Amino acid sequence: MTKTALITGASRGLGLALARSLAADGWRLILTARGEDALRAAAAELGALALPGDVADPAHRDRLALAAQEHGGLDLLVNNASGLGAVPLPPLAGYPADTLEELFRTNVLAPLALIQANLRGLRERRGAIVNISSDAAVEAYEGWGGYGATKAALEQISHVLAVEEPDVAVWWVDPGEMSTAMLADAVGAGEAAGAPGPETVVPTLRRLIADRPDSGRVRHE
């Protein structure tokens, strides 16, 4: 039976790297991201379904869930889409409340809502959820308080889901520093260019999917 995965933030970075790996193994892919042109190019390359949009938009999440249902549900949901928040990275004492609220909608509420919308199919197919986190969720880095708070919340949601949903594997994955557009926005293009490429994290994700270890936090080494 062909397996189906929904990957958010799939037009570039880690989402695209994982999509390429899964496509090579015959997975049916539903890809979403805000950058429509890049997403459609990726989907054309991989023979995937492209549904551009913002995961923070409830109507877009409904479209994603409907697409998954049309394929009989998901075997894998990868919550990779993420916002950085205010740039340059501000101290918490001056963090704009409206920006932080928007960041929580994207990084926390949207992943949970997508899980809720697809949970029935994930249960039936004994599927898996991968929530992409960060070391900023567990470490105190100056300027990363807003982003880190959202990832800490996502990790706690993941942890509780792992307890509540024994038929679904739930992994919250810290990929480490990667050379991505988001990191470049945060620390500058020069420093970001020295980080490992996102494709280096894909083997860790593929091992999780293939071996299905117990739910839990996973740190890519």
UniProtKB/TrEMBL annotation:
GO terms for molecular function: oxidoreductase activity. Keywords: Oxidoreductase. It is an enzyme of class 1 (oxidoreductase). SUPFAM superfamilies: NAD(P)-binding Rossmann-fold domains. InterPro entries: NAD(P)-bd_dom_sf, Sc_DH/Rdtase_CS, SDR_fam. Its EC number is 1.-.-.-. The keyword Oxidoreductase applies. Pfam families: adh_short. This is SDR family NAD(P)-dependent oxidoreductase. It comes from Streptosporangium vulgare. The lineage of its organism: Bacteria, Bacillati, Actinomycetota, Actinomycetes, Streptosporangiales.
